[in-house]
Amino acid sequence: AAVVVLNATRTTLHGLAFAAWLPDGQEIKTPLPPLPPLASHKAGFRLQGPAQAQEGTLAVQLRLEKLEAGKASKIDTGKLTLQVRKPDQTHDRTFLSSIDGSVQYYAVVPAKPGQDPAAQPGLVLTLHGASVEARGQAAAYAAKPGLHIVAPTNRRPYGFDWEDWGRLDALEVLQLAQKELGTDPRRTYLTGHSMGGHGAWHVGVTFPDRFAAIGPSAGWVSMWSYAGAKKATQMSPVQELVLRAANPSDTLALARNYTQHGVYVLHGDADDNVPVGHARTMRKLLSDFHPDFAYYEERGAGHWWGKAGISGAACVDWPDMFDFFERRQIPKRAEVRTVDFSTANPAVSGWCHWAGIDLQHKPLLVSNVKLRHDPAKCRFDGATDNVARLVLDLSHLTDKGPLSFRLDADTLADVPWPKIGDRLWLEHYGKTWKTTDPPSPSQKNMHRSGPFREVYRNHML
Predict the structure, then answer these.
(1) pLDDT tens string 225-254
(2) What are phi and psi of 64, to 5 degrees?
(3) Which letter does DSSP use for residue 316 in this model?
(4) Is 198 exposed, middle or buried (0-12, 13-18, 19+ CB in 10 A)?
(5) Which residue, 54, 125, 157, 164, shows the most beta carbons closer than 10 Å to its own?
């Protein structure tokens, strides 16, 4: 699929079609919707033809037509030049986004053969910096044995700082690339540079069970620490309520989520774009509680830097960081005994391994659940904060006998297995926890919640 942008005149245009064809290929016509006066329309179209065996370029012929009285008249023509890539070369892949139906792309640095040709390759999701694009980010890496490197777009070079639509784009590309490239879901890693380093901090803390390890490079911590945004110390109740919508961006408030994966922090100590103080802040924070993190500063290095003997750009293609990644895997769900998970908005991120925060007592304030379970005894113990409804996925348990819980100050014994499926809901609306039926879709839940900005994920025009 590809895209053409049309600009209308002062009258509505009807009966438009777009024709495209490759050398030795079939001409494919794509009907277009009416184009209102003075409007622009970004339309996808399809190509069909034989694959080119030789490297080089490929010319695509384009024609815009208008159908009147059963006859097609030409409005304009054009040509699109494509670069031809072999399957083992860095290349772009387009897709139709489920977020808004637009055509997007991601770049891939294909894996080189690993030691075990039969093993599934891993995947490194790398997030680009401001003014960079996915294909430029991918070009900074050398191919790795047994690891595909995938760079999403963030919608545009500056995008959304990998928050909001940028975050959705990263997750959509991750899911799509895992399927298309056939990667091992347990060997999934996250990195990024500059704005993308912030993206690694933000996406990593928001979805802690999606990655075995993260590696922010030259990454800033949050909007408050880097962009100069100020948190008011005294606010009216209405101001406080409105500003809660920004809480999912508060990296430090969710920082304990990093315990779910390894962390490698990389920064140049002479960085004049993102000061090294951001990395040192995170090192100090992680050292208070994190059991598995590494930290490296390159002396004398600025914001973007290379190093002799490293084929890619060293500030992103850092060998020690990739070694750190390769020694870590996401644990199987049945192996996860403890979940310590926080979220400021279940509509953004509600799940971690087998525990889900489905509803908050106070919307958009940080909620936390600390749970430990003993699968041999079908027992769960733990504490919650600002959680009104909790959901547990029990599919990893082999013993489907009665369950028992000790949540906060409450004890629930001999809880039967769910009648349908493997998910169990518990609610805390009064003074005690109790089991409940699955909530009605009309009720607030992690799929139907959040501030107004959440409408943008639903094909908003």
Answers:
(1) 887 777 778 899 999 888 888 899 999 999
(2) -100, 130
(3) T
(4) buried
(5) 125
